[in-house]
Amino acid sequence: MRDRANPYRPRETKHKTWHRSPAEDINPSMPNIHEGLAGEEQGRSCRGDDNDSNSMSGLKQVSELDDFGLAEAQNDGMLLLSCLLEDSLRFKMVEGESADLAQLEDDPSVRQVVANGARMRTNVVEAKLDEGNIQEAESALREGLSLNSEEARALLGKLEYQRGNVEGALRVFDGMDLQEAIQRMQPSISDKQAPKKGRSRTESITAVPQNASSVVLEAVYIKAKSLQKLGKLTEAAEECKRVLDAVEKIFSDGIPDVWVENKLQETVSRAVELLPELWKLAGCYSEAMSAYRRALLSQWNVDNECCARIQKAFAVFLLYSGIEVGPPNLAVQIDGSYVPKNNLEEAILLLMILMRKCYLGKVKWDPSVLEHLTFALSICSQTSVLAKQLEEVMPGVIRRAERWKTMALSFSGAGQNNSALDLLRKSLHQHEEPDDIRSLLMAAKICSENVFLAAEGVNYANRVIANAHGSNAHLKGVGLRMLGLCLGKQAKTSSSDFERSRLQSEALKSLDSALALEPKNSDLIFELGLQYAEHRNLDAALRYAKQYLDATGGSMIRGWRLLALVLSAQQRFSEAEVVTDAALDETSKWDQGPLLRMKAKLKVSLFQHKDAIETYRYLLALVQAQRKSSGPLAAVPQMEDDNINEYEVWHGLAKLYSSLSHWKDAEACLGKARTLKEYSAETLHTEGVIHEKQGHNSEALASYINGLLLEPRYVPCKILLGAVLSKMGTKMLPVARTLLSDALRIEPTNSMAWYHLGKVHKEDGRIADAVDCFQAAYMLQESEPIESFSTIR
Amino acid sequence: MEDQASSSPDKSTNNKPRITWSDSYSKAHLAIDALAAILPALPPALSASETPAASLLQDPEVATQISQLFRRPDSGAVTDNLCAWLYDTFHSSEPDLQLVILRFLPTLAGVYLSRAGLHKPLPGFESVLLAIYAHETAARNGQAITVSIPDLAHSSIYHETKQTAKNSSTELHLGVVSASLEPYGTVRSTRRARIVGVALELYYSKISQIPVGSKIEFCEFCKIWSGQEDQNNGDGASTANDSQKVEKKEGRGGRIILPWEILQPILRILGHCLMAPEKNEELFQAAFSACRCLQARALHDINAKVILATGSLVKLAEMAIDPAAAAVDHTEISMSN
Question: How far is CA A678 from CA A23, A670, A704, B19, in A?
Answer without folding.
Answer: 84, 11, 16, 63
